[in-house]
Amino acid sequence: MDFLKLFIVALMSVLKLLLLTSVGIFLALDRIDILNDIAMKHLNSLVFYVFTPALVSSSLAKTITLRSMIMLWFMPLNIVITYIIGSALGWLLNKISRVPHHLQGVVLGCCSAAGNMGNLLLIIVPAVCKENGNYFGANKDVCYRNGLGYASLSQAVGNIYLWSYVYNIIRIYSNKNSTVAQVDDSEENELENISRCSNEQLVNVESKSETTDQFEIMEHAMPIREAKVTRMGNVMKQMQILAKKIDVKTLLSPSTIGSMVGLVIGVVPQFRKVLVGDGAALRVVQDSVTMLGDALIPSLTLVLGANLLKGLKGQSMNLKIIVGIVVVKCIAVPAIGIGIIKGATRFGLINPDPLYQFVLLLQYAVPPAVAISTVTQLFGAGEGECSVIMLATYACATVFLTLWSTFFMWLVL
């Protein structure tokens, strides 16, 4: 396949993203003030609660069946692998660059391949199919529908992982920061107490030995069965601690619920016959949901542009950390992903569909998810630094994503 033609196809899809993003940046400028903070809040709410679940549910209902679910089993595992690789590289970056403690959770979240696996794929993959449908199939409509289904499933699985893993990583590090501050305050209080008590009379050795003997007698007098804790009790205690640490409500985001609804409609034949298809009795419901979902891509891209503008106004950050994150996300993870996908293809673990393999490869090359900045705002941990990271990674992704998309298409076709 001609490499130059593939490069033009990949470039056109990324240019569409850049044009819409630049419109979002323009509308968010202070002189224009259309996408101001209030407008952004309302548009974010529409994207999060309405447009995203509508598009995900309608796309999955049209494209995913029980047979295709069995064929696409590798996608959830592939996303887990991206998180493992990214987490390992992020941990190394924290150690090598000596990242400040309050930013280590943000760096891990951005490097852990918590990529924009749904929103960007929903833009890039259909754009590639529309640009030239002969590469992934003779029928552009079939390519578009299948690509939208793959991207929707990627978004559904990616959201679950992001809100279960990255959310708790940043939360744990933010809690550690507050704990460190509390320890520092307690140490200062202890020093003050020591200085106050330095002039008081010390306790006699004899009285101290008498009190320790009494404590030893009381300890031996305790019943042995009361001192022992059953193994089941320990297990239940650990489960309760784990349940407190993981916020289950965050896993049930609107997009996750929409994914579940779409999967149920697509997998269950009775629901599919009633709702999906030109001859379906309730096809008007599916068409209405699809119309709502079509508003996601332009709205989301405008929001992305407005969020990136904050990075231009954000605070300064160590250049070494930014370069490290860009190298991890834009070079190291995609390169490792090629070896994993090619190895899985050789062993027959992946569906031979070139479009499906292209989506799996793209999951390694996308920049960090915009939702990470939302998580940092929730915990107040590195908000300004996260906006700078987003600006740098997305600016570099315009070049690297085009090159990787071209190479991926050349690899699978």
CATH architecture: Up-down Bundle
The CATH class turns out to be Mainly Alpha
Average of pLDDT:
76
User: Using only CA atoms, what is the Rg?
Assistant: 27 Å
Helix content: over 70%
Helical/strand content category: mainly alpha
Distance between termini?
7 Å
Tell the overall outline.
globular
- Give the CATH topology: Na+/H+ antiporter like fold
Helix and strand element order = HHHHHHHHHHHHHHHHHH
What's the count of strands? 0
- Name the poorly predicted regions: 179-212, 214-219, 221-228
How many helical elements?
18
Task: Classify the beta-strand content into a percent band.
Answer: under 5%
Q: Give the biggest beta sheet.
A: none
Counted up, domains total 1
Keywords: Auxin signaling pathway, Endoplasmic reticulum, Membrane, Transmembrane, Transmembrane helix, Transport
Pfam families: Mem_trans
Subcellular location: Endoplasmic reticulum membrane
Transmembrane segments: 6-29, 41-61, 73-93, 105-128, 148-167, 246-268, 288-309, 321-341, 361-381, 388-412
Report on this structure.
The protein is mainly alpha-helical and 413 residues long. It has one domain (3-178, 245-412): Na+/H+ antiporter like fold, CATH 1.20.1530. The protein contains 18 helices and no strands. It has helices spanning 3-27, 37-63, 66-71, 74-97, 104-111, 119-131, 140-197, 205-221, 224-227, 231-245, 254-267, 269-275, 283-293, 296-312, 319-346, 354-365, 371-379, 383-412. Helix 2 (37-63) runs parallel beside helix 11 (254-267). The protein is globular, with a radius of gyration of 27 Å. The chain starts with a helix and ends with a helix.
